[in-house]
Design goal:
Blueprint (H helix, E strand, L loop, with lengths): L15 H10 L3 H19 L1 H17 L1
Helix pairs in contact: 2-3
Length: 66
């Protein structure tokens, strides 16, 4: 998750605005768009309702086979 999201440790919370701005400013426009697209893919594959159940089904199917 730390490679995908802007990661803020508890002790950094007073500086959250700066951390977010720094993360955004460290990327080019193309990198930012690519990151957004990648996050969307992850959401569709694992976090959306359909994606979650699809992955859960795969996990259960593999678990029962072993």
């Amino acid at each position: 998750w730390k490679e995908i999201c802007i990661w803020i440790e508890k002790y950094e919370l007073p500086y959250i605005c700066e951390k977010i701005l720094d993360a955004h400013n460290s990327m080019t426009k193309t990198e930012f768009i690519e990151r957004q697209m990648y996050c969307r893919e992850l959401w569709l594959k694992y976090l959306s309702k359909e994606g979650f159940y699809r992955q859960f089904y795969k996990f259960i199917a593999e678990y029962h086979i072993k």
